[in-house]
Write a structure and sequence with these properties.
This protein has 317 residues and is of the alpha/beta class. It has helices at 3-7, 25-30, 32-45, 49-55, 58-61, 64-82, 97-104, 110-130, 143-157, 178-190, 210-221, 244-251, 261-270, 284-292, 308-313, and strands at residues 9-13, 90-93, 133-139, 161-168, 171-177, 194-197, 232-233, 240-241, 275-279, 301-305. The strands form 2 sheets. Strands 8-7-2-1-9-10 form a 6-stranded mixed beta sheet, sandwiched between helices. Strands 4-5-3-6 form a 4-stranded antiparallel beta sheet. The chain is globular.
């Protein structure tokens, strides 16, 4: 594979919502170091993650405190097999997937990142119990229209509400207090939008996560952060970052800030990226990129590497 191809490629890692039964199992059973990684992750999360996700406990699979470490373990296991063969231009990850990107770029070692992700999942789950909130995806309406409806719903209810995920130009996720989310869902229906409630345990990427974010930020400061060998495109800024101090301070804001995924992909597009590889299950980010770039007249490519078979089909040496 040519260096030119790799220089135009972003490797990206998925977040919550990408979980599926059996994820990561084939790679772990083929590579001892990946199986050992899962065992270590289970200890840090204090949960039987292999039993939950490999056997398919549908209810437990949606639990935030399990889902976040399990997704990072799945993507990281795949990346362990690929890392010696791929040198992309950028790394990126959606929400918790950003921690996998930090490992891949050498910013955090895997033990540090797994500790943070396990803590993050627990804190976010607990925050949802303390400050009741919810999230909903709104499709078929533009960003401008959704923002207008968010403003209306926030004013009518007097409660916290914002666009939390800019997934595509016509797929926005709102997050906030339950009454405010219910109101914006009602308004979206009236405006011919398609709202879908998300099975999450709280109002993620919103100010309702403030106390959880503060606790996680304190733990981050005790970690050893390193300058990345490859820039990481960050959710909070939609820009690549190589400065280690900026990486830390920006990641400390991630839990209460929107995920600017559309803007992130378009920024990479403007910086000559034309190929995206999603390392993880279910093709969620693959489909988002397709929708973001669907109007582009220039050629681009996106693929998912979610299994051992996918890795073998790449033909990499």
């Amino acid at each position: 594979m040519s260096a030119e191809y790799l220089n135009k490629t972003t490797v990206m890692f998925p977040g919550q919502g990408s979980q599926e039964r059996g994820m990561g199992r084939d790679v772990a059973e083929a590579y001892t170091e990946v199986m050992d990684l899962w065992k270590k992750g289970e200890k840090m999360a204090n949960a039987p993650l292999r039993e939950i996700y490999w056997e398919g406990d549908e209810q437990a699979m949606t639990e935030t405190s399990y889902q976040q470490p399990a997704l990072v373990l799945t993507s990281l296991g795949l990346w362990k097999v690929l890392s010696s063969r791929i040198r992309p231009k950028f790394f990126a990850g959606h929400s918790v997937g950003e921690y996998t990107a930090l490992i891949a770029a050498g910013v955090l070692n895997q033990d540090q990142a797994l500790e943070l992700v396990s803590l993050r999942g627990r804190l976010m789950s607990e925050a949802g119990q303390i400050a009741a909130g919810k999230m909903a995806a709104i499709m078929r309406l533009s960003q401008e229209k959704v923002q207008e409806l968010v403003d209306q719903a926030s004013e009518l209810t007097g409660e916290t509400l914002l666009i939390a995920n800019y997934n595509t130009p016509f797929q926005l996720v709102v997050s906030g207090a339950e009454n405010a989310v219910d109101k914006v869902v009602e308004l979206a229906k009236q405006n011919k939008g398609k709202p879908v409630s998300l099975p999450v345990s709280g109002a993620f990427h919103s100010p309702l996560m403030k106390e959880a974010a503060q606790e996680l930020a304190l733990r981050m400061e005790k970690m050893q952060w390193h300058s990345p060998h490859t820039p990481v495109h960050l959710n909070v800024t939609a820009r690549e970052e190589s400065n280690v101090d900026n990486l830390l301070t920006t990641m400390q804001k991630q839990m209460i800030s929107p995920v600017y995924w559309t803007q992130l992909i378009l920024d990479q597009w403007e910086k000559d990226v034309c190929k995206w590889w999603e390392i993880g299950p279910k093709k969620v980010l693959t489909n988002l990129v397709k929708n973001i770039l669907r109007e582009s007249q220039e050629p681009w490519e996106v693929k998912t590497v979610g299994s051992l078979e996918d890795i073998n089909n790449l033909g990499l040496e």
